[in-house]
Write a structure and sequence with these properties.
Layout: E1 17-21, E2 25-29, E3 32-37, E4 40-44, E5 49-54, E6 59-60, H1 62-70, E7 74-78, E8 85-89, H2 97-107, H3 109-124, H4 134-156, H5 175-196
């Protein structure tokens, strides 16, 4: 992590921010935290923090966790630079209305499909044909993604023979497919961390 005053970290619209810390020991200091690293220490103002992302090599004290919980700060354990998501911890006063709302939407076939259609429109800027099933929408999205891969390969002069990977055998895929799999895993980790924050 670059040395900086974390009070200068960019703010969300509601003045809540995030910080990523790795290879540090984090302790409580009043209503703030201090991250001790090999080349110095960084104060973390917890009261204005929405999310603290903990990367590899981080140790945190019980009192520091309590301070985060008291300030309703989400704690996320991640891989290097926040790429993978491993676990989360929430402050005691967090509410569950958003996750309950999402559970309601996904639990009913009609509302679930409505959400999928809205997401499709958001992603592709055009409404799908009315009456398509969830499986048909997934198929249309798959066709678009395959075409996007082919278009990107043609535009960059990369030889593309289609998406081919095996979860059980990493080296079965060619370097391009392995790069796509690695990039996809990174994207999922970052997306998960962003959604939680």
């Amino acid at each position: 992590m670059a040395r900086q005053n974390l009070q200068e970290v960019p703010r969300f619209g509601d003045k809540l921010s995030y910080a990523y810390i790795d290879r540090a020991v984090i302790e409580q200091d009043g209503n703030a935290l201090v991250a001790f690293q090999a080349d110095g220490e960084v104060r973390i103002p917890v009261a204005g923090l929405a999310t603290l992302l903990l990367g590899p090599g981080t140790k945190i004290t019980h009192e520091a966790i309590k301070t985060l919980a008291d300030n309703n700060c989400l704690l996320v354990w991640t891989g290097e630079h926040g790429v993978r998501f491993y676990a989360q911890g929430l402050g005691a006063a967090r509410h569950s209305r958003n996750i309950i709302h999402q559970a309601r939407l996904v639990s009913h076939e009609v509302t679930r499909l409505q959400v999928v259609v809205r997401m499709y429109i958001h992603r592709f800027q055009e409404p799908p044909d009315p009456g398509l099933t969830l499986q048909q929408l997934r198929g249309k999205e798959g066709i678009r993604v395959r075409q996007a891969y082919a278009d990107a390969a043609a535009a960059t002069g990369v030889k593309w023979e289609g998406r081919n990977y095996q979860r059980q055998d990493w080296f079965a895929g060619d370097p391009l497919n392995r790069a796509l799999s690695a990039g996809n895993a990174c994207l999922y980790g970052l997306t998960h961390a962003a959604i939680l924050s």
